[in-house]
From TrEMBL:
Residues 394-404 have a biased composition (Pro residues). InterPro entries: GCR_153/162, GPCR_Rhodpsn, GPCR_Rhodpsn_7TM. Keywords: Membrane, Transmembrane, Transmembrane helix. It comes from the Eukaryota. This is G protein-coupled receptor 153. PROSITE patterns: G_PROTEIN_RECEP_F1_2 (PS50262). The keyword Transmembrane helix applies. The chain crosses the membrane at residues 18-38, 50-75, 95-112, 133-154, 174-202, 248-275, 281-305.
Amino acid sequence: MVDEMTTMKDDVINANTLAWLVCSGVSILANTWSILSVSAKQKKWKPLEFLICTLAGTHILNMAIPITMYCVITLRRQHSNYEWNEGLCKVFVSTFYTLTLVTCFSVTSLSYHRMWMVRWPVNYRLSNTKKQAVHTVMGIWMVSFILSTLPAVGWHDTIDRFYTSDCRFIVTEIGLGFGVCFLLLIGGSVAMGVICIGIALFQTFSIQAGHNADKNKFNVPTIVVEDAQGKRRSSIDGSEPLKTSLQITYLISGIVFIYDFLTGFPILVVSFASLKFDRSYNWMVLCVLWCSIAQSILLPMFLWACDRYRADIRMVWEKCVAIMSNDEVDEGAPYKKILPRRNRHVDQRPDPLIPASMGLHRGRDSGCPLQLHLAAPREAQEQPGLLPRGEPLSSPPSPQAAAI
């Protein structure tokens, strides 16, 4: 009876293996194109684009390593006596759950950044969001890797090990402790992502339906800080155009809901059911693998539907040529050369009250960004770009004062 059930299970898995392998290849190509397309459309990288490319890269790794490994080994078992061994099964389980957690946390990070950008636009632009995004990705990978490698080093059921008979990767087959931790992390991340994107959508709709005064409250102008010589010292990006803001908000909302309904909730149901019944079924394996593949294929479709990230072949080719020939130059490079190393740091904390004597003005064109001209002291005039710290900014003395 056990042999018949095992054979039936193998037949169900074998019937879907080739489809999984083909879809994995399509997903790898589509997500690679998405990364190139986003890179080609962006002249200045922002945290949101960085997180989107990180999510697409996670999909590529998930399809290329664990999913492809599972399909190839399953196909080899059909045509030979090849079987799973302890090492291969541990590698598959560790990489699959690492990338699953990274995907979940990356989607949550996307929704959090969008909520922050829409709800508190001034604070978002004054904060070092690029550095925070990089640190977030590093923390996501570290936490996911540590938890997912624990079953490979001994945190599993020692009575019936998950790699002794086939490779049973559903959480209940690995162990109760790992299953509970995985369930809590996935559930908490999904809940936080839904809350953050809900706040972002509510804020977006309330601004659209509100009065002009409420809209101007969340409108951030572009501010450029210059010294007396007209050298750019720092800048703050202004608010996005309304059309662009709506596109990005809807895009992130679509990504969050796709993940929640195609991966987050199904994995929660499968994990909870397997822990409750203390066994795994064929439909659990099919559900987990198909949902992982489906949400990785749908991400490039959503990016392609957004004008901001849709690039043609010519733009992608020019971007690749520029990267290979190192033609791209950092936007801040000219200004970094002007300032000495010890004075490269520019404090971007805003002054709540900017007096008229500091030279804040707007050009005749209403679309012109605000420019803040800072008069430099005498030492900075003699040595352009040198502005000692701790010395207050003041206007140069008038000729009458100098004569006195």
